[in-house]
C-alpha cells in the first residue's frame, strides 16, 4: 500500500454526522483537516513487516496517509454535525455587532449598503481572520465573518435611502445620468466592492430612470460584477428584471407578481453551470434582451447571474421574509411568501438573507426566517442549500493551491477552503437530517429549523491549533426558541 506524507499541522477530525451539497447526509464521519479545508478520511489498517498494526486514512484506491506519522496532531472528535459555511446574503454590518455572527452560525455575509471605505475595512478583517495560517483573530474571541460588500446605495437624487437617519454620510450615492451612474459604479469597485446595489423604491421617493438604470447594470457587467436591486413599488421588480439586474435584495413584497414574470425570472440562466463560481470571477454572456410580459423591451443587458455556487435562475432572490412583522404575520409577508412559493416552484433560486440591522432581528441564524421559507414550500434540502449555496469564494488571483493529501471531490467543501470555516451544530443530529431530500412535513421542518438555529462556526485555524476544544451545548438564544 502506498503512503503519502502527512501535511504539516494536519488533524483527523471525526464527527457524529455531516451534510454537504450533492451528497446524502451521513452518520459518523472522519475528515482530514488541513489549512486547505476538509477531505474524506476513510480509515483502514494493515500489518507492517514487523507485525505492528499500521492505521491509515484515505479514499479507496488512493495513496494513504499514515496515522502513526509523528507529524499528526492529536485527533479530535466533534460531538455534533458538520455542514458547509452559512451565509447571510443581506446584512448592514454598520447597524449590528458583526462579531456576534460567527459564534451564532454565520460564517459569511453580503453587506448591501454602507460607506465603501468602512465596508472595505470589514472585508479586510474578515479575510485576515479566515486564513487558516493566522493563529489569532483580530479581536481575541471575537471573529469577524467573511465580508463581501456592495458599497454605497446607488439611487436617484432624493431617492431612498438618502433621507433615512440610519444611512450615514457616504453610504448613498445619488446619480442623475448615465455618466454619473458609470462613475459611481467605478467608485464602488475601486473601493473593493464585489457587486453593486441600486435602489428602486418608488414607494419612498424617486428612482433611477431607465437609461440610468441600464448604465448601472451595463457598467457593472462590463466590469464583471453583479447588480443587486431593492425593488419596491408597483412595476419595480419588472423594471429590475428587464434591465438585467442579477439579484433582488428582498423577495418581492409590495405586489403579487404575475405568473408570466415569475416564470421568466425563474428560467435557467443560459450559461449557469454547476460548481462554485466566485462573485468577481465571471465572464458574462453577450448582451441579450429581456422583455416585459406585456411586450415592452428594455435596453439589451446581460442575463448572466453572478452569485451562487449552484445552477441558478436568471434572477436570484434574497429571502428577507422576517422583516415583515418580525415574527408577527403581516400582509406584506403573505405577499412575499406567495411570490417565493411560485418562484421556487418554477425553479427560481432563493438564498437565505435577513436584512440584518433592519429592526429586531436575531444576530446569527434566524429561525423565523427559516420557518417563513418553509412556509413558502422549501423543503429540508432546499433550506440548507439556501443557507450554503451563496458562500463567498476568493477571486481566482487570490486562491491558493490546495495542499491535497488525497482526492477531495466528495466531501471537500471549496467554500470551507476559501473561508477557512465550517458550520458546526453541537449535540445529537436532528432526526430529519437523514431524509432532507424528501423532507416536507411541517413538524419535521420545525425541528430542523430549530436545530439549525443552534449552529456555530468553526474556523479551521482553531481546529488545527494544539489544545483545541470543541464548543459544547447549543448556541440557540431565547429569541430563537
Give a nutshell description of this structure.
This protein has 481 residues and is an alpha/beta fold.
Q: How would you characterize this protein structure?
A:
Helix 2 (178-190) packs parallel to helix 3, helix 5 crosses helix 6 (331-345) and helix 7 runs antiparallel to helix 10. The chain contains 11 helices and 20 strands. The strands form 4 sheets. Strands 13-12-14-15-16-17-18 form a 7-stranded parallel beta sheet. Strands 4-3-2-8-19-20 form a 6-stranded mixed beta sheet. It is α/β, with parallel strands linked by helices. A hairpin with a 5-residue loop joins strand 5 (43-47) and strand 6. It has helices at residues 116-130, 178-190, 210-222, 236-243, 259-266, 331-345, 367-375, 380-388, 414-419, 442-452, 460-463; strands spanning 3-4, 11-18, 29-34, 37-40, 43-47, 53-57, 64-66, 73-83, 87-91, 108-111, 146-149, 153-155, 172-174, 195-201, 226-232, 247-248, 316-318, 349-351, 421-426, 456-459. The chain starts with a strand and ends in an 18-residue tail after the last helix. Helices cover 23% and strands 20% of the residues.
- What structural category do the secondary elements indicate? alpha/beta
- The best one-word shape is globular
Percent helix, as a range, is 10-25%
Question: Please, what is the average pLDDT?
Answer: 79
